[in-house]
Fold these 3 entries.
Entry 1:
Amino acid sequence: MRLLIQRVSQASVTVDNQTISKIGKGLLILVGVGHKDGEAEATFLAEKAANLRIFEDEAGKTNLSVLDVKGEAIVVSQFTLYANTSKGRRPSFIEAALPDIAEPLVNRFAELLRSHGVPTQTGQFGANMLVEIHNDGPVTIWLEK
């Protein structure tokens, strides 16, 4: 399972000209699911994301988590995080889990993030989404398990 976490001042997800998710300060988390991923990966990464200290404290040090700053999260499924570009010019996505495996695991990850106390919204699995990201910093972190 792969996460691309962006610290945001605000973010939103729009599908068919309808905003389905919108947050202020917090995390936009793109989630990719591989063939071997399951509950253990989702559990580990949800705890890690909830407690990742990437927000600044009063001294300007990155000592605070999304929980500490009372932030929110949007979780967006992103199978392209498993793109293999080692050959040719067209990425291969064969390492990404199929939708019937990936969708429940992305939803489980979002549920686990909520269970840690992070108010969490989601994108719409499989939809063509317009994701608006106001990356704060910019801070972008790659996590994998």
Entry 2:
Amino acid sequence: MKFTELNLDDSLLEALSYMGFENATPIQEKAIPIILDNKDILACAQTGTGKTGAFVLPILNKLVGKTDTSVDTLIVVPTRELAIQIEQQIQGLSYFVSVGSKAVYGGGDGKDFQAEKDALTKGCDIIVATPGKLLSHLKLGYVKFDKVKHFILDEADRMLDMGFIDDLKKIISYLPKKHQTLLFSATMPPNIRSLAKTICHQPTEISLSISKPAAGVKQQVYLAFDNQKSKLLAHILKGRKDYDSIIIFSSTKAKVSDIVRDLGRSGFPAKGISSNLEQDKREEVLRGFRSKRIRILVATDVMSRGIDIKEINMVINYDVPGDAEDYVHRVGRTARANTKGEAITLVNPKDMHKFAKIEKLIERKFDKLQPPEELGEGPEWKEGKVKGNNNKKPFKKKKNWKPKNKKPFNKGPRKE
């Protein structure tokens, strides 16, 4: 379906045309008419499907011609990066519409706090915020949300995973009872449905979560011991010198700097990004990666959802993600918008059961590749059975078991 068929204002259509967008994605096609009809939504759509545009476009359409300066729309997201990205997308889509927006998130200085306070007190049409920073403003008593008409939760499942449920309930208590609620989530576990029952009014459900990587992603799996991973990573990168945009995912923040250091020693300059990095440094690294000044980015899962960086050639899972759904989100960073991409996962013995769950989720079995000969033989694939201390079976006594050659212990005479 073309955007021209969705009853959007001409000013929005002009912005979409200017940005090169002509056809709506499935989530946009389904969600936009419902939102324009002022109904609540519970939507499930994975990353890379255009869900930000699915709620931003109809909200902007409603704001055309708005004259007062009150906060009309509150969008709450789990991370600073996602808040910045959504606010930037609002600015792009509202190029020909008189709409003000402000991202409110932690990690800034006093000037940032004052700018956020000004937006919250003097008026701003759309506020995009992380829960913690927004609550710090709300508790100071100067924020007025009495005219909020639209409340949007994006990446709701991630927010619940991060323990924001109490913060969300507190934020909602500041909103007027009558408002439109739009809840977007990449997965639909029971706690999301429970939350929807609490905050939504007869929501229309939309489910487009296929939980499978895009068809354009070439996926490969290498079996490797931990002490082989660094050299295997260098081997993979040597064969892809024409790639100018690569993300390497680590499952822990502590390992990011180790991977960056090992890559540097192997002749592959890289930058790391995780929540340990100061906000201004994180933004600087992201700008460098977007502009291709930084070729290789090593990141934790803070980057796997919601960060819209186009034309990523390859994603490498240095570690298997703990959640099978996170594999889809990581791999979803590449092959965006019908392009081609590559995803490689390094699987050590203790992570084999995790990768087996991924194969079950995406309904696909992979060939398990071995490292090149010069790196030595990798582990043998054993689904659900792992050699080593992490997979030792507990000792069980057999029926009528008796110890062999067991003699009573005699201390002997006590020595004075």
Entry 3:
Amino acid sequence: MLAPKKQKHRKVFRGRSDTKGVATRGCQVSFGTYGLKAQSAGEISSRQIEAARRTMTRYIKRGGKIWITIFPHKPLTKKAAEVPMGSGKGAPDHFVAVVRPGTVLFEMEGVDAKTAKTAMVLASHKLSIKCKFINTLEK
């Protein structure tokens, strides 16, 4: 699973304002031919990213090339089970990628459009946000 090698801060503020608005960067398909674009805001965990990647890779039978254009930089904390309220913030538990509407999450190349669309739709079922398939060849 994806996780940063180094962090400036071990714990970060929860921050609900970082999902407001639409994406201005990372909203174009820049590496491949097909893409999976976010239509809603949210946080995607590193486990969800890995599950989606494995689904796409297995469906295209390792035929094409896949790019993951998001990375889980933000650590989320969790308190241990049955711990009373208070006594500070919990320990870092997992990492998430903050996604705004319009962000391209995955890109693909080297397969036909029908296969790419099916693979991306299967991958979108693994994610916690709404997504749509985009094709740069159709203009």
